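Supplementary Methods, section 5.1.

A reviewer requested that the exact input to the structure prediction be made available. We therefore reproduce it here, unchanged from the version used in the analyses.
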Amino acid sequence: MKFIKENLAVGLLLFALFLGAGNIIFPPLLGQQAGEHITVAMIGFLITGVGLPLLAIVAVAKAGGDLQLLANRVNPVFGIIFTSIVYLAIGPFFAVPRTGSVSYEIGIAPFLSEAATKHWAPLFITSVLFFAIILYLSINPTKLVDRVGKILTPALLLVILLLAIKSFVTPLGEPGAAVGNYTVSPFSEGFVQGYLTMDVLSALVFGIVILQALRDMGMSDTKKQVKTTIFAGIVAAIGLAFVYISLGYIGNTSIDAIGVSNNGGTIIAKSADVLFGNLGSIILSLTILLACISTAVGLLTANAQFFSKIFPKISYKTFLIVFTIVSLAITNVGLTTIINTSLPVLLIIYPLAMVLMVLSLVDNFFKGGQIVYILALIPTFMVSLYDGLKLMDIKLAPYENLLKLLPLYEQSLGWLVPAIVGAIVGFILHKIFKKK
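The structure derived from this sequence is encoded token-by-token as follows.
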């Protein structure tokens, strides 16, 4: 019983770290837009929103909980640069400020007058209070399991459970018709929406937080750490699947009650109001705030731990304070600006992280051959880089025409086949060079 209790606590910690604002906003939008194809679309979403992050947790656990160790298999210079970019992207530059902005937009703004929402002060005051809480919870990471896993997560699950039960008992309405890409390719569209939640990037980063929590519990055996981390990953995956399916169902049945919307936050906010009235808005606010707090704590903690390791002369607490201040400042530029600025960067680095993670899982098959990693990641980067540049209105017509010849390019998966071909060529060359 002690083993299950301790491991369940770590699993709840991991689940709480994963479940951020984006995870709550995307499923309702998918549910509404997928219409009658909700089942197929949700399967695709669960593969990349739950399955791949679980594999990433396993990969990081086997690598000692360190993304840099994985990236070093390509090249040490690549390892430090890529890892730093990933940490900063899903830390103080983009993801953490997004949690602060979403907390305000969905958790606070609906209760303010229209005039108040147009003033800078409410967002600033909210963000100051929000990040004060984050700093308090993060200042001593040895308490993460107690504070996050045992306190915030049960409360978070409760408010989501209330929404889910009410939506099943008294459905909002019937599913609408599928729209957009969901009409012709619901699986691939759900698949892409799933990986855009950034959960794979988060999984690669959260490994160090989980291993630190296990060490604080007195667990020093490496094999036991890996086993426990995998168990925790399964617990988190089950929790995420429950949340995604529940919120997807709410969105799927919401059109009759609230109309069509292209904003997942609006869908869930209006649905909560229909399901519970004013109480629904309060429930949603609690859900968003708890999810954002949990995610921000995990991301800032992981960032501070990573950079204090890279620059040992600067303490963990110093990095934590600096990153908290940076996150606070960026939060106040507004949610739309944060998302628009972050998306090109994420489109560039996310495929690289996915390919790196998959190769690390089959590393023993090619005995860690560096050339396999290099030849898989170079073509991946050539495609993903242009995907990011396009969003910044930097276009090269001849190059784009060439990329359009790639399978799945229109589905934002044009990097997949080049990555596979590159890995195969790398494997063949590795075998040839090894024989000489």
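The CA atoms of residues 68 and 76 lie 8 Å apart. These observations are discussed further in the main text.
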